[in-house]
Amino acid sequence: MSALPPYATPGQRVWFYSFRVICGLIFFFLIAPIMVIIPLSFNAQDFFTFTPEMLALKPEGYSLKHYKDFFTNSDWQAALWNSLRIAPMATLLSVSFGTLAAIGLSQTHVPFRRTIMAILISPMIVPLIISAAGMYFFYSRIGLQGTYLGVVLAHAALGIPFVIITVTATLVGFDRSLTRASASLGADPVRTFFKVQMPLILPGVISGGLFAFITSFDEVVVVLFVGSAGQKTLPWQMFTGLREQISPTILAVATILVTVSILLLATVEILRRRSERLRGMSPG
Amino acid sequence: MADVTDATTARRAPTPDDAARLADSDQSGPMLAADGRPLKQSLQRALRREKLRALMLIAPLLLFVLVTFIAPIADMLFRSVENQIVGNTLPRTVEALADWNDDAEELPPEPVFRALFFDLFLAAEAKAHTRLGSRLNYETTGISSLFRSSGRRMDDVAEPFQDVLEQADPQFGDGAFWYRLMTGEGDADTSLLNDQRERLAALTREGMGGDIGFAPSAEIAALLPRAAREYSAFALFTARIDNDVVAEEDPWESVYVALALDLQDGGAERVQSYAGPGADALQAAAANADQLPVVDFREAFIEVDDGWGDRTNWETMKTYSPPFTSGYFLNSVDLQLTADGVEAREENQRIYVMLFQRTMFMSLVITFSCILLGYPVAWLLANLPMRTANLLMILVLLPFWTSLLVRTSAWKVLLQQQGVINDTLVWLGIVSDGGRLALINNQLGTIIAMTHILLPFMILPLYSVMKTIPPTYLRAAKSLGATNWTAFWRVYFPNSVPGIGAGSILVFILSIGYYITPELVGGTTGVFISNRIAYHISSSLNWGLAAALGTILLAAVLALYWVYDRMVGIDNVKLGG
């Protein structure tokens, strides 16, 4: 499929090119909505469509006023800070517990491995609205509903499956004779973990952490129910903005978030390659 | 996570388990380890230690997930059948109602109304009657206002009793006297007090333990059982909820009613021989017992609100009196639990079956659109040279990584009547300015936006399956004379079916539980069952129904995941390509 053979019939040629056009359209469908909001966020007017000035590429059609609004409006700033207060804590919790458990799960003999795995993965499987409902009921029973701690715990629980999946995937390729070698050279388990195992599985841990971070940073359903006004995060603010009075500031926020996701995507990709390279380099 | 392989020999490394088996098969006497123990024993100990260590590493997380996630889900399952509120708020009424034959064409007998008076009086003091009213209102409309208005007027029912008693002896108007009278002399009746503790704890959901500085004497409890009971409830409430000193507070009107009923019910004779504190006042009241009003509680209640004369309300109360109910689940499938058994709901109240059907139908449409759009793209990615494919993969992964709300807001902006798509169509002359398409706040909007959001979840599994189909298969088919179409349909497509299956189940599972996108772009016709769950949690506050709907949805998702696990294996979920 990479190239059209020279003996292709006209019919095959037509199909070859039309197929590529179809695929191009689908790619366009995938990427265009995200790309369109970037120029729209620089709109000088409070409209959600391209103004004639913008189409004529006149400078007066563009402005940074929606960005200015984002950085000065207290609602948006509070939401941003809440997100930045919640997501790292949740990530820290899920990564530290998750990495330990992933190492435990990758041991040769783990009783009830399937059951344990099913329980640990379940936050990813259960639809968010159901998790949100259950957490709302249960956390209000134990007084965690509407608190910072409640939201952090809920988000940590949602991030755990991603950490487990990425770290166990990294550990599959981990050569266990390295830990034995380290032990035979006199290192205690803690030292072995930090000096031998951790550096090798670090890429997996970091990408698991990034997934956990994104999960918490993007999450809106659970925080809507478990949080109260004091924990209003960025996605929550966007959600209310979209539902009630839709303001173009949302587009500026969206553009910033797209930039963040491009950076994260690049990081994860680099880490994945590094991890593959490291695994390729390990003896054997 | 297969067993660990030895890097140098590519064989499975020997484990303590293997060695234990090896030692087991050895017949020639026990082999000894270096420390002199039998080898088998020593190896088994090592194996046990290894298992324990693995579990110790997992335990913190397991505990964390059990508390923060599994317990909430269990709570939701429990709430979908739980119905303790009726029994907790009106315990005596429920007990009395058990004897009422609801087939007969009459109202419950007088004892039920008497029990209701005391229950409702206490519930109104604890402000719990409105909560029960809203709960029962889900089943029969009008009960909420019935409870709210009646709770306020329980004092009126009690008033005539209080007047007569205070005229008989003015001491009855004094809180300290009541305290002396009820404390009495001799042994205290702790079981009566503890019963009331339990009852108030269930009603108010507050701790009722500890010393409250009051306990009714056993003598008084035998002499005036109702009054001792109600005064104990009053004392507990005063001490624990209001944080006041019992002896300094005037008792509730219900205590007067209880005393009057006790006196009318043979207590007047019994108090003649009583000699404890307050005996003079009691005997004075007994002497005036004939002046105490003989109140028909049934009539009094009907006078307060004629809703109490309506059998339907009583039937609802009786039907929903057990601590557990299937009512919420029946409600979720548009049925109703009534005194005569399970019935269909009225035509205009049936929405849930329709919503479940719509959720299923739209999820199927979304899954199908994802297959339609994802298949060609996955095929192209799997067959292009690595470098180009990796570049194009970014176009799939970027939406995958972009915030859900960003993508939803993009569609909200694009699909508006004055949005980019409609503007472009008008500019191209495809639609007139007056005839702009309604692309949002309907099913179409939800389907477009969700197809876009879930498309990467279809492309990624399809791609990984197609990567494994050797291109030589197609060439072989063609060299054997197959046309392009036959080669694709008979050779390539069957090989890619596992990818379609995995992607479809994934997309379907994700879409039936979606909440945010339908909420924002679905209007009223494009919303899913999850939106209704959210509505019941935050707006209508019918948590039981929300829990039942959630449980049904959860069961559907788990069943689908079971299929997914059989097909692909949950361990094989790959993230980000």
TrEMBL record, chain A:
Domain ABC transmembrane type-1: 80-268
UniProtKB keywords: Cell inner membrane, Cell membrane, Membrane, Transmembrane, Transmembrane helix, Transport
Source organism, top-level taxon: Bacteria
Gene Ontology process terms (BP): transmembrane transport
Record carries keyword Chaperone: no
GO CC terms: plasma membrane
Residues annotated as transmembrane: 21-42, 86-105, 117-139, 151-174, 200-226, 246-271
Membrane topology: Multi-pass membrane protein
InterPro entries: MetI-like (IPR000515), MetI-like_sf (IPR035906)
UniProt subcellular location: Cell inner membrane; Cell membrane
Similarity annotation: Belongs to the binding-protein-dependent transport system permease family.
Protein name: ABC transporter permease subunit
Origin organism lineage: Bacteria, Pseudomonadati, Pseudomonadota, Alphaproteobacteria, Rhodobacterales
Automatic annotation (TrEMBL), chain B:
Taxonomy, superkingdom: Bacteria
Membrane-crossing segments per the record: 54-74, 360-382, 389-406, 444-465, 497-516, 543-564
Chief place of localization: membrane
Pfam families membership: BPD_transp_1 (PF00528)
Gene3D superfamilies named in the record: MetI-like
SUPFAM superfamilies linked: MetI-like
Membrane topology of this protein: Multi-pass membrane protein
Entry's Gene Ontology BP terms: transmembrane transport
Biased composition (Basic and acidic residues): 14-24
Domain ABC transmembrane type-1: 356-564
Segments for region (Disordered): 1-35
UniProt KW keywords: Cell membrane, Membrane, Transmembrane, Transmembrane helix, Transport
UniProt keyword annotation of Ribosomal protein present: no
Localization per record: Cell membrane
Composition bias, Low complexity: 1-13
GO cellular component: plasma membrane
Family designation: Belongs to the binding-protein-dependent transport system permease family. CysTW subfamily.
Protein name: ABC transporter permease subunit
Organism: Halovulum marinum
